């Protein structure tokens, strides 16, 4: 199952926190697919996050739905002081690390800092500290993450998201089937297990 | 718990089909709140349903998510040949009947015709047939539903939805808490039972 996500996306937060454990229980392999939501939104004609463009929906999502969801899942939540917050550097690192065994823990730590502690995660120091905690050579990882080759790969991954018809995050892809939103994580995993409900 | 819904709204379909039985199990009283989604969307600056304005999202919702959700809930699904479909007359009847014991069954039958059988439910004959099945005097109900008084009440209910900050349907209101979407029906009922997750 492909897990398409953005660190800037608030509903990607609970999905990223939950997906690895749930997939393991379900016996489903996952592929981490970090991508840039901004270009996808702009290509759809939206200037920013729907939660900025559609104010009432954004107020509800960030002030009512997210705090309740996080409480339900036992996740910390802090109303973000900046939204949406750019998270280019962590996305580049996640892309670089997407087949490393530590990618899940890296993503969870970034998400927890962003939405659980309202930390600006687009800072090299913040990313480096997390890499160090994970036993990685932070300088080396950051250098490779910022290379022109890796920047280009992130642009290409974002193009791929658009070609697949993604319009938001998180999105789970299982074969031809697309599942949009944290609310569909369990359904996507059932689908990946061959469950067709019928 | 207030159940705000629109017959034109595809995600109101599974919510309307499920809410009465789930609320009864949870011991929660519900108030049926039919309203017009069109004026609410227009007041938010959207010309039509977000599933029309945002094509990719609409394609996903109607061609992937709805068929799967309906299969999961054991509900019939037919891709609507017209979307969004006007459902003014059934909404007026639902409003008129909103405190009658047969309101739930009326709403479910309208929804099943609309999204399960792709029937144009804004036709007096279709509504009359359903009223007759429910043992109601169809002519009398339709006359009262179409009265200026009842038309005005539906406009007022729609104004009330806007004052409450609704931006979509279905929406469940429990005190000050708003829950948007069929996906939040269970959470809203837990909230109505006093569950605060914390």
Automatic annotation (TrEMBL), chains A, B:
Keyword Isomerase: yes
Pfam family, one: DSBA
EC number: 5.99.1.4
GO biological process terms, semicolon-separated: glutathione metabolic process; naphthalene catabolic process
Active-site residues per Swiss-Prot or TrEMBL entry: 9
UniProt xrefs under CDD domains: DsbA_HCCA_Iso
Domain (DSBA-like thioredoxin): residue spans on this chain: 2-186
Catalysed reaction equations from the record: 2-hydroxychromene-2-carboxylate = (3E)-4-(2-hydroxyphenyl)-2-oxobut-3-enoate
SUPFAM superfamilies, A to Z: Thioredoxin-like
Enzyme class: isomerase
InterPro entries: DSBA-like_thioredoxin_dom (IPR001853), GST_Kappa/NadH (IPR051924), HCCAis_GSTk (IPR014440), NahD-like (IPR044087), Thioredoxin-like_sf (IPR036249)
Keywords: Isomerase
Keyword Isomerase among UniProt keywords: yes
Molecular function in Gene Ontology: 2-hydroxychromene-2-carboxylate isomerase activity; glutathione peroxidase activity; glutathione transferase activity
Family listed: Belongs to the GST superfamily. NadH family.
PANTHER family: GLUTATHIONE S-TRANSFERASE KAPPA, GLUTATHIONE S-TRANSFERASE KAPPA 1
Name recorded for this polypeptide: 2-hydroxychromene-2-carboxylate isomerase
Annotated organism of origin: Isoalcanivorax pacificus W11-5
């Amino acid at each position: 199952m492909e897990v398409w996500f953005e660190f800037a996306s608030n509903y990607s937060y609970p999905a990223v926190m939950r997906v690895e454990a749930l997939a393991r229980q379900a016996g489903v392999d996952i592929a981490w697919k970090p991508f840039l939501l901004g270009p996808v939104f702009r290509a759809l004609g939206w200037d920013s996050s729907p939660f900025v463009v559609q104010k009432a929906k954004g107020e509800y999502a960030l002030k009512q739905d997210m705090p309740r969801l996080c409480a339900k899942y036992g996740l910390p939540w802090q109303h973000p002081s900046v939204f949406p917050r750019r998270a280019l550097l962590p996305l580049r690192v996640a892309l670089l690390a997407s087949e490393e065994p530590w990618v899940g823990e890296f993503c969870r730590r970034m998400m927890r800092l962003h939405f659980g502690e309202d930390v600006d995660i687009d800072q090299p120091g913040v990313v480096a500290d997390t890499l160090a905690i994970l036993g990685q050579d932070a300088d080396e990882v950051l250098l490779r993450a910022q290379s022109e080759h890796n920047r280009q790969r992130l642009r290409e991954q974002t193009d791929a998201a658009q070609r697949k018809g993604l319009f938001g995050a998180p999105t789970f892809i299982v074969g031809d089937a697309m599942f949009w939103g944290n609310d569909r994580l369990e359904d996507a995993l059932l689908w990946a297990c061959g469950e067709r409900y019928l």
